[in-house]
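At this stage, I put together a protein sequence along with its fold in token form, as given directly below:
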Amino acid sequence: RLEEFLKKEVDLELSTLPDFEERVIDVSEVEQLMNSINAIPAPCAPVINPQAPNAATGTSLRVCWGLFSDDTVECYQLCYKPVSNERHSDEQAEHTLKVKETYCTITDLLPNTQYEFWVSALNASGISPPSERAVYVTAPSPPTIKNKKIQSCENAALVCWESRDINPVDSYTVEL
């Protein structure tokens, strides 16, 4: 019977035209729900590393940090300011840099000066809480030898110098 039915030509004409209403459907709530399901969470706070040996010059510091989770991170926001013992330390200039890597070399710093650093991670969902703050110190400037005060004899020499740093230097190494 099916074979006979399929051999027949069928003419399907609608006797009346369909009357459709134009409706605008608001799917913004559904879109929001769908986006929230697929959205990545804001990252966790990064962990800033303590200052590494030989990571400083008189005018620069290399700061490193890590992210101990599988969070998706687009970039990092590194903030720093000089450490001050004065009452108005909150008014110190705070600097912010956007960085793609988990390290950054900051230049144009003052010699023999402490700087406080903290970092946050960013992705499409938002910004992480800041890391703990870490204090890094730039290397002191080389001292200036006072040529007019140098004295010597057969078995000894007197060499005088002065520091060009604002903060006191812990020690000096004299090489002959």
Remarks:
- The domain at 47-137 is CATH 2.60.40.10 (Immunoglobulin-like).
- The chain has a mean pLDDT of 85.
- The helical segments are 2-7, 28-38.
